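Annotated sample (chain length 193).
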Amino acid sequence: MKKFLLLVVVLFIGANVFAQNVEYGLKGGVSIANLGGDDPQGDAKTSFYIGGFVTFEIDDTFQFQPELVYSEQGSKAEAGNYEEKFKANYLNIPLVFKAKMFGTEKFKTVFGPQIGIMVKSELSSDSPMGDVDMKEATKDLDVALALGLEYDFDDNFSINARYNWGVTKIFDQDKLETDARNSVFHIGFAYKF
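Output written by the structure step:
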């Protein structure tokens, strides 16, 4: 974990040294999450995400954008007459590249890896069973690939849509044998200072 955080700091400093232009901003919006894989049978769970970012201009076409984003994820399902929600909340660190598209400054594609640090893992139910802490069965780190689009309205405001596809299984296989992976769609707004 310490090595990973050191790597993030080095990326921030290194990109800042070589970048021509640096912008800071905040982002947030709606998170539509579910569990992918062969085993899960749940439905999408709608919640929110919020965070910040730094954008480094590499050249006229490409930008590098490390982010720090709190995202409520998981899924929901019907179990008999009761509703169950799996709440898996992460502090995500996307390290994405943005490429200008169609010869315009306003429209960009976004792609890159994302590391998620698990903050909360809980199965909540309105049944007599109540809430069950799932932290012991959930892995501390999640790796995903991010792919999305962004449109800048002006120099400050933009709208974005991104899909985060989980590459790693989120549960410890010794404690819960399932191939469940995060599958999260974010749509929201960003503001650059």
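Annotation: The longest helix spans residues 2-18.
Annotation: The longest strand covers residues 82-100.
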